[in-house]
Structure formats: structure tokens, C-alpha cells
Amino acid sequence: MGHITNEQVRIHIGDIALPGDLAVPEVASGLVLFAHGSGNSRHSARNREVASMLNGMGLGTLLFDLLTADEDVGMSKRFDIALLGERLKAATVSVAHLTRERHLRLGYFGASTGAAAAIRAAVDSPPHMRIDAVVSRGGRVDLAGHEALCQLRAPTLMIVGEADPEVLKLNARATAWMPCEKRLEVIPGATHLFEGPGALEQVGKLAGKWFCQHFAAATQPAPHGHAG
């Protein structure tokens, strides 16, 4: 795996600065930006555990606060998917220099409401910052909206706990609208928070495999005679 560089960063958006934690292995194939669920922050223990597993698989990670402390007091902005998606896009821009210098592919990992923000941001990403893969953990992908789901092109993996029937139903319905490569993985016995033994470890393994596979595919040159 080699050395991992850990750095505290600030993502500046207008008059606000959102704190983040950036971790990049010495040899990395891509960078995964995390979008946490409502009521959580970059300190989410579950996301940090998954991020650590991704680091061990040669993937960089950025965990950051989507909202300021004042914004997070009320409920309205926690569920403002358009705002959260814009914050995720701004964070992506903030690491553009790193991804260019290190030739890193880009991916999003969204949990709960953060998954909807990840889909919105992936749909709106400019060509020079293409999102090559998205992973949702217990995600409310339905909150991204029908229009965004129908426009999603990034290969998307949705991981849902077997004991989370409502979210499982919403994810299954969303797959019918998504034109991209997609997969719905159900973790046996897992709840919405993936608290059971080994459940979160399965999430990390599935997510890491998905990112590594699609980052590698995005790096391959297009065959002769085909547009890239």
C-alpha cells in the first residue's frame, strides 16, 4: 500500500469554508469524495471506516462537511439536495489540481441523503472533471429526482441492507430509470446503518472493487475507430 499522506483542508465556497480530511496513498488510482447523510459530518465513524478500507486499496479519499455548523442546526438545509450537490461539486473543483497532477480518476461515495447529492453532482460534472464511478450506501437515491436519475451516466453501485426494506424498495425502483451501468447489492441481514458483524466490511470491499474496476476502465485508451 505504501505511505498515505493525510492533510486537513478547507473548501472555500463564497464566504464560507468547509473543513475536510484528505488522505491519498503514495500510489493511488483515484480519489473518492464522500457525501455524508443528514445529521452527520466528516467525522462519521461508518464513513471513516469505509474510507480507511479504500485507502488500503490504493484509493484517495476526501471527507468533508457539507454544511457549516450554523447551517446544520436546522433541518431544512440537511435535506436541500440541490445545495448539497453544489457543495460536493465545489469540493471536486477544490481538488482539481491534485487530480490533474496525480492523474487520479474521480468517484463519489454517498450515504443516505448524501447519495442523492452525489448523483446530482455526478450528473452536473463538467467534462474535464468527469465522475467515473458512484457508490451509494443505504442511499436515498430517489431524492436526487427523476430527471437526475434519468441523466446519470457514471457507473453506479447501490448497497442496501436486507433489513432496510423501504430504502431497498426505493433503490430497486430507481434502477429502472438509470441509463448508466448499475448494480444493486443487498447485504444479508444488514440494517440501514450496517451495524451487524462484518456488514460495513462488506460495504468497503464492494465499494473498493467498484471504484478500482471503473477507474481502471476509464484510464484505458479508446479502441481505434471509436470515440473516447
TrEMBL record:
Recorded superkingdom: Bacteria
MF term (GO), any: hydrolase activity
Keywords of this entry: Hydrolase, Plasmid
The protein's name: Alpha/beta hydrolase
Organism of provenance: Cupriavidus oxalaticus
Lineage: Bacteria, Pseudomonadati, Pseudomonadota, Betaproteobacteria, Burkholderiales
